[in-house]
Amino acid sequence: MSDKVSSQIDVATIDGDAVTDPWREFRLVERITLELSQSYKYSLGKYSRFFIELENRRFLATRCEACGKVYAPPRPLCPACLQPTAWTELSGEGAVETWSALHFSPASNADARALETPYVLVYVLLDGADTLFPHLLKTPPDQVRRGLRVRVVYSDEPVRHPIHLMYFVPIST
Ligand SMILES: [Zn+2]
Questions:
Q1: pTM listed for this prediction
Q2: Tens-place pLDDT, residues 119-163
Q3: Ligand 1 centroid vs 118 CA: distance in angstroms?
Q4: If residue 50 lies in a helix (H) or strand (E), which one and from where to where?
Q5: Which of 7, 29, 82, 97 yields a CA-CA distance of 20 to 30 A from 23?
Q6: DSSP assignment string, 53-115
Q7: For the chain, which residues make up each domain, given as ranges?
Q8: What distance in angstroms lies between residue 147's CA and the mean position of ligand 1's atoms?
């Protein structure tokens, strides 16, 4: 917790019987507003290399050497074979499988609040992958369709979470 604390004087009297109320001497209350913030460390664990390589403008997935399935987003363990996977690089190009246009941004964090509405979330089947990758597609909603070819763009802006080091844009034809 931080030491950032502010106080506002807010005094009220809570009603009570002036004669019989045993707490009559204590009905004047002051309310204060406190602000707490918290910083903590969160490990990205076995997924860390995916995020580290985004800063190097490389898009990594994982591949199961037993069954050959390629996971993007990466999975450290193949759920079918229960075998550890290996890192593999993809081009970062793929096709939209399904999508949503969102007209409200969640208030949950600053990255989300910064989104201009409407914005588009897509599931992309990346070339060489077997699973769908969900993320932001920066394009007007009326330009999105299933099968739209897209590519990863890497951001140079400061971000609050490394997943925002990337987003998708349509590949102009
Ligand atoms: Zn497998």
A1: 0.77
A2: 999 999 999 999 999 999 999 999 999 999 999 999 988 888 899
A3: 38
A4: helix 48-55
A5: 7
A6: HHHTT-EEEEE-TTT--EESS--SB-TTT--B-EEEEE-SEEEEEEEEEESS--SSSHHHHTP
A7: 45-170
A8: 27
